[in-house]
Design brief:
- This protein is mainly α and about 300 residues long.
- It has one domain.
- The protein contains 14 helices and no strands.
- It has helices at about 1-30, 35-65, 75-95, 100-110, 110-120, 130-145, 155-175, 185-205, 210-215, 215-240, 245-250, 255-265, 280-295, 295-305.
Length: about 300
C-alpha cells in the first residue's frame, strides 16, 4: 500500500514538472499561432499519441487474462465533460499567456486548489475557517501579482483567473468518473473532444496558414506529447494510487516549476512575456502558494483524527 502511494506521488510530481515547463512552451507557441489553433492541434496530437498506447495495453491485458475496460457509456460521458472543461480552461489559459508571464500564469492557475473546496458549498458543506483564510490570502496574492500602479487588472491575468475555475471543474469531473473507467481511455477522449472543438473553431473563424504552425512545431509537439499525452494521463492514473490531499498539494507544485523554468529561460536569454518576476509579484506568489497549502489543512486534520 505504501509503495503504491509512493508510486502515485512520484507520477503526480512528474506531472507537475511537465506542466510547469508547458507554460514556457505555450508562451512561445502563441507567438506564432493563435491560442485556439495551438490548443486544437496539441490536443488532437495528445489524443493520437494515446491510441497506440491503449491498443498495446489492451492486448497486454488480454494475454494475461485480465479484464479490459471497454469504451462504455460512463467513459464517453466523462470524456466529453472533461473535454469541454479542458477546452475552456486551456483556451482561456493560452489566451491569457499572450499578455502575462508564464510564472504568473502558473501561480494564478493554481488557484483551482482554493476554488475546489469552495465548490463544496453547493453540496451543503460549509467551508472551514482555514478555507476562508486561504481565500483572503489568495486575493491578497492576486492583488500583489496582478494590480499595477493604476489599480487595473491585466486582461491576461483575468483570463488566467477564469481558467482556474474551469480547471477546478475538470478535476471534479475526473474525481467522479475515474473510478468507473480506464484512465488512459478517458484522457484520450477528453483530448479528442477538446481538440475537435478548437480545430473546428480555427477552421471556421480564423485564417489558417501552415507556415506559422510548422515554425512552432517544437512548442506544439511538447505540449501535445508531454503536457497532454503524458502529464494529463499521469494525473488520472496517479490519483488512483494516492489520497486527494497529497495529490492536490503535489500538483500545485506546477506553479513553482513554472516560475523556476521562467527564471531559467530568462537567464539563458529567452524572450518571454513579462520577463522576470518583481519582488512585489514574488510576494504575491508566496501568499498564493500559502493559500494553496493552507486550504489542505482541514483534510490533513481529519485524516489525523481518523
Amino acid at each position: 500500500m505504501r509503495n503504491q502511494k509512493l508510486k502515485g506521488n512520484l507520477l503526480l510530481l512528474f506531472t507537475a514538472v511537465v506542466w510547469g515547463a508547458s507554460f514556457i512552451a505555450q508562451s512561445k507557441g502563441v507567438e506564432q499561432v493563435s491560442p485556439v489553433a495551438f490548443i486544437g492541434i496539441r490536443s488532437l496530437l495528445g489524443s493520437a499519441v494515446l491510441l497506440p498506447v491503449i491498443l498495446f495495453l489492451d492486448r497486454r491485458r488480454k494475454k494475461k487474462g485480465r479484464e479490459v475496460m471497454g469504451w462504455n457509456k460512463p467513459l464517453w460521458l466523462g470524456g466529453i465533460l472533461c473535454g469541454l472543461f479542458l477546452c475552456a480552461a486551456t483556451t482561456l489559459q493560452t489566451m491569457g499567456m499572450v499578455e502575462t508571464s508564464p510564472g504568473k500564469a502558473g501561480f494564478i492557475t493554481a488557484l483551482y486548489m482554493v476554488i475546489i473546496p469552495l465548490c463544496q458549498i453547493f453540496r451543503g458543506r460549509k467551508p472551514s475557517s482555514a478555507v476562508l483564510v486561504s481565500v483572503l490570502l489568495a486575493v491578497g496574492g492576486m492583488y500583489l501579482m496582478c494590480i499595477g500602479g493604476s489599480f487595473t487588472l491585466n486582461r491576461g491575468d483575468l483570463l488566467i483567473f477564469a481558467c482556474a475555475f474551469f480547471f477546478a471543474g475538470h478535476i471534479l469531473v475526473i474525481d467522479h468518473f475515474s473510478p468507473m473507467v480506464d484512465g488512459i481511455k478517458l484522457s484520450c477522449v477528453q483530448f479528442f473532444v477538446c481538440g475537435l472543438i478548437n480545430t473546428c473553431w480555427m477552421l471556421l473563424f480564423e485564417e489558417v496558414t501552415l507556415g506559422p504552425i510548422l515554425q512552432s512545431w517544437m512548442s506544439i509537439g511538447y505540449a501535445g506529447v508531454f503536457s497532454c499525452g503524458v502529464a494529463y494521463t499521469l494525473q488520472i492514473v496517479g490519483q488512483k494510487y494516492t489520497d486527494p490531499t497529497s495529490a492536490s498539494i503535489i500538483m500545485s507544485l506546477e506553479s513553482v516549476f513554472a516560475t523556476l523554468f521562467t527564471v531559467l529561460c530568462v537567464a539563458l536569454g529567452w524572450d518571454l512575456t513579462g520577463g522576470q518576476l518583481t519582488l512585489k509579484e514574488l510576494c504575491g506568489c508566496a501568499l498564493m502558494f500559502g493559500a494553496i497549502l493552507l486550504v489542505q489543512l482541514p483534510d490533513l486534520r481529519q485524516k489525523k483524527n481518523t
